[in-house]
Recover the amino acids of this structure.
């Protein structure tokens, strides 16, 4: 992302825009693929309102949610985490900010839900994620797949293309996918 995109997202979040919430099917996949946290660290990139970050905390992970929008981070921090450890929230652009500013040097889980499509330099982004993953860690990505919507929204380019999915899945030792509606969930391991 760039400063221009951070400004773009800040405008949307500050005006009250909200995005697709986690549903039962996605939660079951998340729990099945990631398992219990056992107090291991997890990083949620582009946390938005924090629903995925809080879900990771409920699974027993020590979570940090980051987003380039300060309004999104404030919204996430204002909500009750429910059972589990309270997440840490930080306004940060994963593509440009210093990764040493994060509280952990490596994470057992890094998540990226409905964000990958908006990353300009996908190869550089994936390099940063690989740097943050602990040995044996999992990169959990949820992305809409291009062409799956039957509505007018399909022309807006909300999904990732086959070429973008190829960039995402190349170079991992294990790739698992599962589809939920117009979304594809990727569990990627180094």
């Amino acid at each position: 992302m760039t400063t221009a995109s951070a400004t773009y997202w800040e405008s949307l979040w500050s005006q009250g825009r909200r995005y697709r919430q986690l549903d039962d099917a996605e939660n079951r996949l998340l729990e099945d693929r990631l398992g219990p946290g056992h107090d291991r660290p997890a990083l949620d990139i582009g946390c938005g309102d924090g629903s995925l970050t809080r879900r990771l905390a409920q699974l027993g992970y020590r979570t940090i949610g980051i987003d380039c929008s300060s309004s999104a981070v404030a919204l996430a921090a204002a909500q009750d985490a429910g059972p589990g450890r309270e997440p840490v929230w930080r306004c940060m652009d994963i593509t440009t900010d210093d990764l040493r500013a994060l509280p952990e040097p490596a994470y057992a889980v890094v998540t990226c839900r409905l964000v990958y499509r908006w990353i300009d330099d996908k190869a550089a982004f994936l390099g940063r994620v690989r740097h943050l993953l602990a040995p044996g860690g999992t990169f959990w990505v949820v992305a809409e797949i291009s062409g799956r919507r039957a509505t007018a929204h399909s022309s807006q380019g909300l999904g990732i293309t086959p070429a973008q999915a190829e960039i995402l899945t190349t170079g991992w030792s294990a790739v698992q996918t599962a589809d939920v509606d117009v979304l594809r969930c990727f569990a990627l391991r180094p």
Q: What stands out?
A: The radius of gyration is 15 Å. The chain has six helices and seven strands.
